[in-house]
TrEMBL record, chain A:
Annotated NCBIfam families: phos_prot_SiaC (NF038265)
Residue ranges constituting the SiaC family regulatory phosphoprotein domain according to the UniProt record: 7-123
Annotated organism of origin: Pseudogulbenkiania subflava DSM 22618
Protein's UniProt name: SiaC family regulatory phosphoprotein domain-containing protein
InterPro entries: SiaC
TrEMBL record, chain B:
CDD domains, sorted: GGDEF (cd01949)
Origin superkingdom: Bacteria
Catalyzed reactions: 2 GTP = 3',3'-c-di-GMP + 2 diphosphate
Protein name: diguanylate cyclase
Domain GGDEF span(s) in chain numbering: 130-262
Length: 125, 262
């Protein structure tokens, strides 16, 4: 499976899914016109990785603003990770936020609710 | 059920008893018993299949319910998170709005905000009449402060004067940085006499500040004021501002540190 690379713009995040590293990185704002179109390939990539590999999978997020359909897509991805975790896989999320933007951390905490896999919310300067 | 089993067991015993072998009823009973057995098996099979269908239907119903519950929880979570994002954006918007109406150095409302308030005041005049006073104030010889003591001191002087002016007016008056070393003061519902008294107080305050802000021996800080009254809601804003500006120009011409009414 190939790596997945989406160039970020003002309205969509930069996305890098690295098969070798077992890591998906998403960075930026997310209010795309069509969230399904943007995130379905990421969801498919995660599904393929979880099906074909038994290595750990890491999701690294540095997202500032998400519109409603992006929130939904994000929860679909986190649900995928939860499913894998329940099946005994090693998965984890790192949500990074700028230290002065405490509200982003609060939102990440809202996302984290209900999930039992490792989900770290980390401040950076 | 027990009765059936007992009967079946009795018949099996009878059929197995060699004493009845060859009796015409033996063969008929054996055939009838076989037929009964077959039908019993059929009934059990049909019931088993029907039960499995019922179980499958029930499971399907349960999984629909579980899926519905899960999706409901997901939707609730999405709505909750989305609301928080919207609140965050609204707050950021308000903050940006505030920033766009403020002067960074002095913290006073900026020229844009002052113009908005002036237009509102004119509209109010149109609706309910009355009057307001407008004053333009300019720091005297500000260039020589900048040149003589540096821009840092100049900036501090501006910030201190701004603070003094805004503290010295009423809550519903407007004190804005009009540009450079120039300030705009708007006094709703006020007469020239009332404003003159306020300006007198402000001038005395600036004189006190002067000693704290500039080195000993420096010329004292003073302000020149151009003051004008507005009663006519139909008067163009530019004309009112121009009148105040000309009065300020005259104040400068008359030796500064004074108030001229235009």
């Amino acid at each position: 499976m190939q790596d997945l690379i989406v160039e970020g713009t003002g309205s969509i995040p930069a996305i890098r899914a690295d098969w070798e590293a077992g890591c998906v990185v998403m960075k930026g704002d997310s209010y795309p016109e069509n969230a399904f179109e943007l995130y379905q390939p990421v969801i498919d990539w995660i599904e393929a990785f979880l099906a074909r590999e038994d290595r750990p999978l890491r999701l690294q997020l540095q997202l500032l603003y998400l519109n409603t359909s992006s929130i939904r897509a994000m929860m679909d991805m986190l649900d995928q990770l939860q499913g894998a975790f329940d099946g005994g896989r090693t998965v984890g999320v790192e949500w990074r936020y700028e230290r002065e933007n405490e509200r982003v951390a609060e939102l990440a905490e809202e996302f984290r609710e209900d999930y039992t896999f490792p989900f770290d919310i980390l401040a950076h300067d | 059920m027990k009765q059936h089993e007992e009967l079946e067991s009795r018949i099996e015993t009878l059929l197995a008893d060699p004493a009845y072998a060859g009796h015409p009823l033996h063969e008929a009973l054996a055939s009838l018993f076989e037929c009964y057995r077959e039908q019993t098996r059929q009934i059990e099979r049909v019931s088993r299949i029907a039960d499995r269908y019922q179980d499958a239907e029930r499971d399907r119903g349960l999984s629909y319910a579980a899926r519905y519950q899960r999706q409901l929880r997901q939707v609730e979570k999405i709505v909750r998170i989305s609301d928080r994002y919207q609140n965050m954006l609204r707050d950021m918007n308000q903050r940006l709005h505030w920033l766009s109406s403020r002067d960074e150095l002095t913290g006073l409302p900026n020229r844009r905000h002052a113009l908005v308030r002036l237009r509102e005041e004119l509209q109010r005049l149109g609706r309910s009449g009355g009057q307001f006073c407008l004053t333009l104030a300019d720091v005297d010889h500000f260039k020589s402060i900048n040149d003589g003591y540096g821009h840092d001191v100049g900036d501090r002087v501006l910030a201190a004067i701004a603070h003094g002016l805004s503290e010295g007016v009423r809550d519903y008056d407007v004190c804005a940085r009009w540009g450079g070393e120039e300030f705009l003061l708007l006094f709703p519902h006020s007469s020239i006499e009332e404003v003159q008294s306020v300006l007198g107080r402000l001038r005395r305050q600036v004189a006190v500040q002067s000693g704290e802000l500039l080195p000993a021996g420096a010329a004292g800080l003073t302000l020149s004021f151009g003051l004008t009254l507005c009663r006519d809601a139909a008067e163009p804003l530019d004309a009112i501002l121009q009148r105040a500006d000309q009065a300020l120009y005259q104040a400068k011409g008359q030796g500064r540190d004074c108030v001229v009414i235009g």
